[in-house]
Design a protein that fits this description.
alpha+beta, Glucose Oxidase, domain 1, 4 domains, seven-stranded mixed beta sheet, 15% helix
Length: 612
């Protein structure tokens, strides 16, 4: 089996000398020729992914994931991620059927416990231990080992699913965003995992991981790692019983997790707030009230005849199947009310004792829209016949996904223990959905949400400013008279926007820019990006033409600037790769050694997301 080291990000520097660098993350290709990351199947470019074979596109996705994390974490020691795609025949751990299966398996190559680490009793993933101690404790070996299912989309394995290979986060229905999977998997390799066997509560021969030292038993109000096996086992299968805690995580919760809107009405006999589900196309929910007025016609399937009465009030509209044989959509009903000047819309069911739904559609409206039961809607109408009914939007006492403290985030502890998912993921009750939940939700993008805060609490140094990384895509060498592409990734880890942001790229004399796509499309540098929102991840793909007299090494440097600089910024990144005069390929010798715990990433389709 041939091994290739693929540079994902190289030296990252800054004008601020105080350890203000990112992380050098390398992708090690351990697939055999013609397989997985070397799959020669011809494909069309998709979503900024310019690869022309399936293997190339997978490598580019891995490299982009590495640049995102490389712009987020700090380490003076390169982090090697051994990666390959395999089939269930190659690896029996990849159990798969036409409707359910495992997408990926990630191993932490070693857990390190030593008096030199901040918590000597904890097991630190080797990549984190290396970063903290400033030396490679397992030289010549990979630090994270990831395997992915190459059979997804075949008759025997998730036949109605496929991976989305684009870099823009726009998967179609039935596609799983592969970049999100890679980012999720890397997070486990960096330390987002428990060392416990959730079925028994035992750590076995392993020390508790540093992650376990941050797990809180909500039920017994005690640290998880200090309990007995029996105590841990008793709560590992109890929903809401475990939460993750840490100073950085607590500070990040208000920035990412939302309160849920509530709805109350002054109708005798109804218990407030009433059962309520916000619509997917709703505008913001104000903490305000207004009279609730029934629309005319009540189903809102045609022009509203009482528009003047609805103006400034909440329109009450009933669910319906069709109007004259034409489907009458929730969005259309709400749009008519918005056009009439309504301040909000309350949709109610047309079937008794039916579960609430969250009406979907796009684009989003500017007014709040929610859904209540037939029983609630009927009670409102009856009361409105004799008195004015005031409806009021409020919010839950706690943000979604947290325990009663308000700053600890609940972990995934389903009633039936999932041996590779329980405890090592966030719970599924957060809004918006989080990267480290056991399901991939379409709304999860590449901002990494709470994950960097968790890693900070574990001991990682996390970039808190504007950060740039440039990486040569695909093989880490340059050939004269060829056209290599570079991934230029900008991440804003500041809590506030970065203003007047500009990117520049320098490269050897004689090289020229053939194309630019993504955030910068001007065809020249510097490139103005204007205001970059907090948490934003911006990618520019730059293709150069290399002259025949290319220097060796070939140095490409990316620089970022903002009108409001911060000492936490990482504003300079340099890619240094050799120039090869022949067409030969270099390879590394030897293979990775699998050590320590293994964490599986399970993925079973489960509407509307995917089970991890």
């Amino acid at each position: 089996m041939s091994l290739r080291q693929i540079a994902a990000s190289l030296v990252v520097l800054t004008c601020f000398p105080q350890a203000a660098f990112g992380a050098d993350i390398l992708i090690q290709d351990t697939n055999a020729p013609g397989k997985g990351l070397n799959d020669p199947t011809q494909v069309s470019p998709v979503g900024l992914n310019f690869g022309t074979t399936r293997g190339q596109q997978a490598i580019i996705l891995l490299q982009y994931a590495a640049t995102i994390w490389g712009a987020t974490l700090r380490s003076s020691i390169p982090i090697v991620v051994d990666s390959a795609f395999v089939t269930p025949t190659d690896d029996a751990r990849f159990v798969c059927s036409s409707t359910a299966g495992i997408l990926g398996i990630t191993a932490v190559a070693a857990f390190i416990s030593t008096q030199s680490l901040p918590v000597p009793a904890a097991g630190y993933p080797v990549a984190l231990a290396n970063a903290l101690l400033g030396e490679d404790l397992t030289p010549g070996e990979a630090h994270i080992i990831s395997r992915f299912n190459a059979s997804v989309g075949t008759a025997a394995c998730l036949q109605n699913q496929s991976f989305y290979y684009g870099l823009e986060g726009k998967p179609d229905a039935g596609q799983d965003d592969l970049l999100s999977v890679f980012l999720h998997e890397f997070s486990h390799g960096f330390g987002f995992l428990s060392a416990v066997d959730a079925a028994s509560g035992s750590f076995g021969s392993n020390p508790p991981s540093i992650f376990d030292f941050h797990v809180w038993d909500v039920t017994d109000a005690t640290p998880w790692q200090s309990e007995t096996d029996a105590q841990r086992q008793a709560v590992a299968d109890s929903v809401g019983a475990l939460a993750l805690q840490g100073q950085a995580l607590a500070a990040a919760v208000p920035d990412f997790l939302e309160y849920l809107p509530t709805f109350s009405v002054d109708v005798p006999g109804l218990q407030n707030p009433v059962p309520f589900a916000p619509a997917g196309f709703s505008g913001p929910f104000p903490l305000a009230g207004a009279p609730v007025i029934a629309a005319q016609p009540l189903d809102g399937c045609s022009d509203l005849t009482n528009a003047s009465a609805l103006a400034g009030n909440f329109a009450l509209i009933q669910r319906s199947g069709s109007d004259g044989g034409v489907t009458c959509r929730f969005l259309d009903k709400a749009n008519r009310a918005q056009d009439a000047g309504a301040a909000g819309v309350i949709l109610f069911n047309d079937q008794p004792d039916a579960p609430l739904i969250s009406p979907s559609g796009s684009p989003a409206l500017s007014i709040p829209v929610g859904f209540v039961s037939l029983e609630t809607g009927t009670a409102i109408m009856q009361r409105a016949g004799v008195a004015t009914v005031i409806g009021t939007f409020g919010q839950t006492a706690l943000r979604t996904g947290v325990d009663s403290s308000g700053d600890r985030v609940l972990l995934y502890t389903p009633p039936t223990v999932a041996s590779v998912s329980s405890v090592s993921h966030f719970g599924t009750g957060a809004t918006p959905a989080l990267l480290m939940e056991p399901t991939i939700q379409p709304s999860v993008l590449y901002q990494l949400d709470l994950t960097p805060a968790v890693l900070s609490d574990l001991g990682w140094s996390v970039v808190k400013g504007l950060s740039v990384v440039v990486a040569k895509a695909l093989d880490p060498q340059i050939y004269p008279n060829q056209d290599p592409s570079y991934l230029l990734t900008l991440v804003n880890r500041r809590p506030l926007a970065a203003n007047d942001v500009s990117l520049n790229l320098t490269f050897p004399a004689g090289a020229t820019i053939l194309s630019m796509a993504g955030a910068c499309t001007t065809g020249t540098f510097p490139c103005s990006l204007g205001t970059v929102a907090p948490g934003a991840v911006l990618l520019t793909v730059v293709t150069l033409h290399v002259p025949s007299a290319a220097p060796d090494p070939f140095v490409v440097t990316a620089m970022a600037s903002a009108s409001n600089p911060s000492p936490d910024d990482v504003l300079l990144s340099t890619s240094v790769v050799p120039t090869v005069l022949s067409t030969g390929c270099s390879s590394t010798a030897g293979g990775p050694t699998l050590l320590g715990l293994v964490l599986l990433l399970l993925l079973v389709p489960q509407s509307p997301g995917r089970r991890l």
